[in-house]
Amino acid sequence: MKKSLNDSQNTNVNNALLEINDWQCSGDVDYLESAVAYLQAAIKLEGQNNE
Question: 9 with 28: CB under 8 angstroms?
Answer without folding.
Answer: no
